[in-house]
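Reminder to self: tokens first, then the designed residues, so the page reads top to bottom the way the pipeline ran.
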């Protein structure tokens, strides 16, 4: 059971939820402020923040080899409907590359900013066509203040009530629309990347533009050169749709359905990260499929911790939290999705005609 989960009722407000959270974690401020430092010392002494160059060398090499194998199969198959199977395979590999870009952005792979940036733009901009610089800026804000914002969905009842007529229509059925909408996630990320690169002037922006353009030109040229127009469009719909679905399903269990802390919340860093995050139980296959993001609490507490060390750190961090009364939420994969969908359904209720009356 996740102690930090609070039911969403029609009478709940952001301040009410915040008060519940404060009651759940109330303790002397000085004691709370020192606990993360104590945990950090234990984690460092265990060597869990040390780089894992061997792991990442193998992981990057294998992932790039699989990407090359996927495109080689694409060329060899030619103008065939079997290319849809290649599209599924490439959707998985694109997501795995995205996970590596995520790790580079947190300096899990390399200790220096420059090396991390080079790896990130090669993996992100060139490899899968997403702006690494834009994503790092956005993702760092998320880590500082965990959020679950998705443009087309409402995650608070105040948002569901205050939106326009069409938005409220979507919110009524958002629990049912959640997974179908994720099929558009990759397109949304591509559009956001292009907007960021065209609107913002920043150092090294030229290289990001050049690499993302090279990806787009290479991708479209290969698809329309090998496939007929109809098959080319079908290939892109399947590949990009499943790419977005896989990405979204990797992030969905982490925070959705968990408490949303308002800007005035006074929880310390340890509790803020633990309260708003959920782990997903599983073995090596879950670790692979989620790119280590199934250890969301550990990752949010120590973003620079290399991916293979997250599993090793879990027992230490979980025990530390339990000994000090810090809520620690862990769920099965099916249970995490069920909790997220129940939350979306509850939040969307005020947008329904019966609730409005």
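Designed residues (357 positions):
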């Amino acid at each position: 059971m996740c102690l930090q989960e609070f039911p969403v009722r029609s009478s709940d407000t952001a301040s009410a939820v915040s008060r519940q959270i404060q009651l759940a974690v109330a303790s002397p401020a000085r004691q709370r402020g020192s606990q993360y430092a104590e945990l950090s010392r234990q984690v460092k002494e265990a060597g869990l923040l040390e780089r894992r160059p061997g792991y990442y060398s193998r992981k990057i090499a294998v992932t790039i080899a699989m990407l090359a194998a996927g495109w080689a199969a694409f060329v060899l198959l030619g103008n065939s409907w079997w290319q849809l199977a290649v599209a599924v395979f490439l959707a998985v590999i694109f997501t795995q590359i995205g996970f590596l870009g995520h790790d580079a952005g947190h300096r899990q792979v390399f200790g220096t900013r420059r090396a991390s940036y080079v790896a990130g733009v090669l993996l992100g901009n060139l490899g899968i066509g997403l702006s690494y610089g834009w994503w790092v800026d956005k993702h760092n804000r998320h880590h500082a203040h965990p959020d679950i914002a998705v443009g087309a969905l409402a995650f608070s009842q105040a948002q569901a009530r205050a939106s326009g007529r069409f938005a409220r229509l979507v919110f009524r059925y958002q629990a049912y629309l959640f997974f179908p909408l994720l099929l558009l996630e990759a397109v949304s990320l591509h559009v956001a990347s292009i907007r960021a690169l065209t609107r913002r002037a920043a150092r090294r922006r030229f290289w990001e533009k050049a690499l993302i353009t090279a990806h787009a030109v290479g991708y479209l040229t290969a698809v329309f050169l090998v496939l007929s127009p109809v098959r080319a469009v079908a290939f892109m719909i399947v590949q990009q749709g499943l790419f977005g679905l896989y990405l979204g399903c990797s992030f969905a269990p982490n925070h959705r359905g968990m408490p949303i802390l308002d800007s005035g919340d006074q929880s310390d860093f340890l509790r803020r990260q633990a309260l708003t995050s959920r782990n997903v139980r599983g073995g090596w296959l879950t670790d692979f499929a989620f790119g280590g993001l199934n250890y969301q609490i550990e990752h949010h507490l120590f973003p620079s911790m290399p991916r293979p060390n997250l599993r090793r750190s879990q027992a230490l961090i979980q025990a530390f939290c339990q000994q000090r009364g810090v809520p620690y939420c862990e769920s099965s994969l099916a249970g995490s999705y069920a909790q997220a969908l129940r939350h979306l359904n509850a939040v969307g209720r005020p947008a329904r005609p019966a609730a409005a009356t």
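The mean pLDDT is 85.
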